[in-house]
Amino acid sequence: MPSARFAPARPIYPVAGIRAVEARALPGAVPPLMERAGAAAAALALRLLDGPGSVLVACGPGNNGGDGFVVARHLKAAGLRVVVAFAGEPAKLPADASAAHAAWLEHGGSTSAELPPPPPGGWNLVVDALFGIGLQRPLEGRYAGWIATLNAQPCPRLALDIPSGLDADSGRRLGPCFAASHTVSFIALKPGLLTLDGPDQCGELHLQEIDVDAEALAPAPGHEITPALFAGRLAPRARNSHKGSYGDAALIGGAPGMVGAAILAGRAAANLGAGRVLVGLLDPATLPVDILRPELMFRSAPELLAEAGIAAFAVGPGLGQSDAAWTLVHAAIALPAQLVLDADALNLVARDPGLQAALAHRSRPAVLTPHPAEAARLLGSTTADVQADRIAAACRMAGQLKAWVVLKGCGSIVANPDGHWWINSSGNPAMATAGIGDVLSGILAALLARGWDAGEALLAAVHLHGLAGDRVCAAQGLDSGLLADELAPAARACFNAWVVPSPADAPQRPTE
Ligand SMILES: NC(=O)C1=CN([C@@H]2O[C@H](COP(=O)(O)OP(=O)(O)OC[C@H]3O[C@@H](n4cnc5c(N)ncnc54)[C@H](O)[C@@H]3O)[C@@H](O)[C@H]2O)[C@@H](O)CC1
Ligand SMILES: [K+]
Question: What is the CATH number of the domain that holds 410?
Answer without folding.
Answer: 3.40.1190.20
